[in-house]
Amino acid sequence: MSESAARPLRADAERSVRAILEAAERVLSADPGASMEQIASAAGVARTTINRRFAHRRALVEALASSAARQLAQAVDDGRPDTAPPLVALHQITANVLEVKSAWGFALAQPAAPGSEAAALHQDISRRCIAVLERARANKLIDEAADLQWVQRVYYALLGESLQSGSEQTDTDTAAARIIDTLLHGAGPRT
């Protein structure tokens, strides 16, 4: 662990890191091959500021992935997965996740390095997703014989498709309602 990671950053340094990460997301989303100089320029900082915080490009991308994963984990937490009624939790988590994923698409598309903070967070998010699906099954929202690993993969696919299909023109609550309705009822006729 680096010395700077071992102690909290000063408020100004934290703002600088946040600006760098936000700029990196914007720049790398538009051009994954963008240089550190381009990221520094977009962040409004000197290249040396980035070098002080991130030893190399890979360190910056890993920090970006960890930051986005923390935001994704917070989005799940904010949906109250353990306490809200399962349908409410599924909807709120979905809306929250759509917001984070639309803002941090590049960072969240990066494969998390094994053993990294991002990998651990994604693993925990997956575990919590299964727990919410188990609660939904206990409340008879999901068939008792359903394979929850499969349901989770379908849910993730619906999230991804919603983000890819231009749903940015749809508010997140409407998109979340469509995802949850499709997940729980499919495309068959309503009886």
CATH superfamily of the largest domain: Tetracycline Repressor, domain 2
Number of strands: 0
Structural class, from secondary structure content?
mainly alpha
Counted by DSSP, the helix tally is 10
| Low-confidence sequence ranges | 1-5
- Roughly how many Å apart are the termini? 57 Å
Q: What is the 3D form?
A: elongated
CATH topology of the largest domain: the name is Tetracycline Repressor, domain 2
Oligomer, anyone? single chain
Task: Give the count of structural domains.
Answer: 2
Beta percentage is under 5%
Shape-level CATH architecture of the largest domain: Orthogonal Bundle
Main sheet attributes: strand count, strand direction, barrel closure: none
Please characterize this protein's 3D structure.
- This protein is an all-alpha fold and 191 residues long.
- It has 2 domains: 3-55, Orthogonal Bundle (Arc Repressor Mutant, subunit A), CATH 1.10.10; 65-185, Tetracycline Repressor, domain 2 (Orthogonal Bundle), CATH 1.10.357.
- Helix content is 72%, strand content 0%.
- The protein contains 10 helices and no strands.
- The longest helix has 22 residues, at 57-78.
- The N and C termini lie far apart (57 Å).
- 27% of the residues are buried.
- The model is unreliable at 1-5 (pLDDT under 50).
